[in-house]
Write a structure and sequence with these properties.
7-stranded antiparallel β-sheet; Alpha-D-Glucose-1,6-Bisphosphate, Chain A, domain 4; 201 residues; alpha+beta; single chain
């Protein structure tokens, strides 16, 4: 039984590397405050941090740089809105990556937005996706308040390596390397650093 489980896992990982399988991965951090007033004030600050995506670049020299662009491809400040883009620049000599904001919501106890890999702004006529994941992938960034506890999450869904044509373009090999490295350790470093930051740890 254990041998079969190991073989299944190896086959699954091989299919992931080939872009034939998808993976769901999430990271979260929590911070419990001493009372509801303190929790509300901290949550309000968490929402500001979540929506100030450009400031995520200051987390560490080893984490990615982020810049929000409007639907016309112009850099912008302020919270990301549907059809905005976010340019994600990973450390090292790798291609830039782009995501498009597909959803955002804000209420009394929760704020979130969702992005998906996309073309560069203004290049909607091409099938190439400027990201190491395929366009079906989704990432939701969320902060929520329950009682006196704030939770921040990064929820990745349907993550699949963008190494097949026509989406991959000339990036198939580097996309595979980036995605596999991310699954092995970099995603945890990047997103856990972010979720800790969002809940003030």
């Amino acid at each position: 039984m254990k041998s079969k489980t190991l073989i299944d896992k190896i086959q699954y990982e091989a299919k992931l590397a080939q872009g034939d399988e998808t993976k769901n991965v999430s990271y979260a951090s929590q911070n419990t405050l001493p009372n509801e007033l303190a929790a509300r004030e901290a949550f309000d600050q968490s929402v500001k941090k979540l929506l100030d995506v450009n400031a995520w670049s200051t987390l560490s020299s080893l984490t990615a740089d982020f810049q929000v662009y409007d639907s016309a491809g112009q850099p912008k400040t302020g919270s990301p809105q549907p059809n905005d883009y976010i340019n994600v620049v990973l450390p090292g000599p790798v291609p830039e990556n782009w995501v498009r904001v597909t959803h955002s919501s804000l209420d009394d106890n929760r704020a979130e937005f969702t992005v998906q890999p996309s073309q560069k702004p203004g290049e909607t006529e091409t099938d190439e996706v400027a990201h190491f994941f395929r366009s079906e992938a989704r990432s939701t960034f969320r902060v929520e308040l329950s009682g006196t506890t704030i939770t921040a999450s990064e929820i990745g869904q349907q993550e699949s390596v963008n190494n097949q044509q026509p989406q991959a373009g000339d990036r198939a090999i580097i996309n595979t390397v980036i995605a596999e490295t991310g699954w092995l350790f970099y995603q945890q470093f990047q997103w856990k650093r972010l979720t800790d930051y969002l809940v003030h740890l």
